[in-house]
Amino acid sequence: MTVERLPPGALARLARTRSAPGDHAALRDGAHSLRLVLLKSLLTRLERHPGAVPRPARERFEEHWRLLERTEARDRRPVRDTLDYPSVGHWLARTLAAPDGDALAGALGHFGAVVAAAALRASGSFTLETATPGGVLVLPGAGLAETGTDTVRLTAHGRTARLTAAGRRAGPVLLRVPGRVCGVAPAGAR
């Protein structure tokens, strides 16, 4: 929903904190539309300027983008919920403002965690390798896991997803129920 389609008087009511039914939904729809525009702007930037980041960073982004598209085709709600999470909007704005080169490549690294959070909520099977800056995987709306390494492989099947850091034995297992990640089990759990 666009600002032009807000219910009559919605902005005035929201400013006074006395909203009517439908005002908050219209505001959420507008915020979600903005997130989609920002995400599409990021994709367009990388398509128009392929040298903006080193090839490995671009290829990883494209791989993550394809998983996001497959996840959305299967179930839109988890993708929407993840994209609407506050930290995702902050990440998008920061990434779009980053200069080409290492700064942009570093910011793009967080996209894998955004995609992983959406795919985990959608309960599909997937394998994804993503950056874990500072040894921490931050999954918007789901939590974080200390990995102790700069990258991690996330392999999801059925009700579980396993984190495996490069050069290490299998790591913790994330337990999933449709629509959310509900906890972490020891590495030996199934």
Name the strands of the widest sheet in spatial order. Answer: 1-4-5-6-7
Low-confidence stretches: none
What is the CA–CA distance across the termini?
43 Å
Provide mean pLDDT, rounded.
Answer: 85
The radius of gyration is 18 Å
Order of helices and strands: HHHHHHHEEEEEEE
Shape annotation: globular
Number of strands: 7
Number of spatially distinct domains: 1
The largest pleated sheet is described as: 5 strands, antiparallel
Tell me which oligomeric state these chains represent: single chain
Tally of helical runs: 7
Class by SSE composition: alpha+beta
How much of the sequence lies in strands comes to 15-25%
Can you describe this structure?
The chain has one domain. 48% of the residues lie in helices and 20% in strands. The model has no long low-confidence stretch (mean pLDDT 85). Helix 2 packs parallel to helix 5, helix 3 runs parallel beside helix 7 and helix 4 packs antiparallel against helix 7. It has a 5-stranded antiparallel β-sheet. Strands 2-3 form a two-stranded antiparallel ribbon. 29% of the residues are buried. It has 190 residues and is of the alpha+beta class.
What attributes characterize this protein structure?
190 residues, alpha+beta, 7 helices, single chain, five-stranded antiparallel β-sheet
Give the arrangement of secondary structure elements.
Blueprint: H1 10-15, H2 23-48, H3 55-74, H4 76-83, H5 86-97, H6 102-108, H7 111-122, E1 126-131, E2 136-139, E3 143-146, E4 151-157, E5 160-165, E6 173-177, E7 180-185
Antiparallel strand pairs: 1-4, 2-3, 4-5, 5-6, 6-7
Helix pairs in contact: 2-5, 3-4, 3-7, 4-7, 5-6
